[in-house]
Amino acid sequence: MPGFSSILDQAISGSIVTLRSLKQIEARVAKASDLIEQCLRAGHKLLVCGNGGSASDAAHFATEFVVRFMKDRPAYPAICLTGDGGLLTAAGNDYGFDEIFARQVAAFGLPGDVLICLTTSGKSRNVLRAMEEAKARKLKTIAFLGRDGGPTIGIADVDLLVASDSTARIQEAHQFLLHVLCEIIEARLS
After folding, report:
1. Is the distance from CB of 182 to CB of 64 less than 8 angstroms?
2. What is the mean pLDDT of residues 10-18?
3. What DSSP state is assigned to residue 24?
4. How far apart, in whole angstroms, are the C-alpha atoms of residue 122 and residue 117?
5. pLDDT in tens, 95-109
């Protein structure tokens, strides 16, 4: 059985390798930041969603825009689609779990808004349905993906694919990218 130090060393090494690999998607990160900046400058909003740990990351990201990231500045409109238990359970009960985010995109999404989805596997059917609904309503879309992107790859306007097989390393990279986007947008809009 590996010891604590060995596990820690492996986790640090894996994280470093995964974070360094993000340099390969630099142009896509720039495009994602441009979409978010254009959206917010035009007075539109961000809609953000994901499942499980990605739901928590979605909530964290939306909070950084509504409240602040590094400095005091005006609030930017961002809605996390995972935050209302009553809405999620009603949509899941009446329309099925696959529709919990798509139903909210239909209710809240307007042309010019940006939908940001997080899925470490790319296999989350409810995330895919949300992107399809967003496309139908002329929203721009950004997908944070992992592994090979699954069936979700290629659907969004911008795919930010973390090519790793470790859910933990993918989530760490997603969190890192979310913070980088916050930092870029806050600097541009302040």
Report:
1. yes
2. 96
3. G
4. 10
5. 999 999 999 999 999
**Taking the CB of residue 72, how many other CB atoms lie within 10 A of it?**
7
| Closest to 134 in 3D by CA, of 103, 159, 158 | 103
Neighbour count for residue 167 (Cβ, 10 Å)? 15
Distance of CA 49 to the CA centre of its chain: 6
Q: Report how far residue 149's alpha carbon sits from residue 184's, in angstroms, rounded to the nearest whole number.
A: 25
119 three-class SS: strand
pLDDT interval class at 24 (50, 70, 90): very high
Tokens of 40: 């917010």
How many angstroms separate the CA atoms of 52 and 76, rounded? 25
Task: Copy the structure tokens of residue 128.
Answer: 């895919």
Model pTM above 0.85: yes
Q: Provide Rg for the chain, Cα atoms.
A: 17
pLDDT tens, position by position, 129-177: 999 999 999 999 999 999 999 999 999 999 999 999 999 999 999 999 9
Q: Both ends of the chain: CA-CA distance in Å? A: 51
Residue with tokens 């929203």: 139
Would you state the structure tokens that stand for residue 8, as one six-digit string? 């820690």
pLDDT for 161: 98
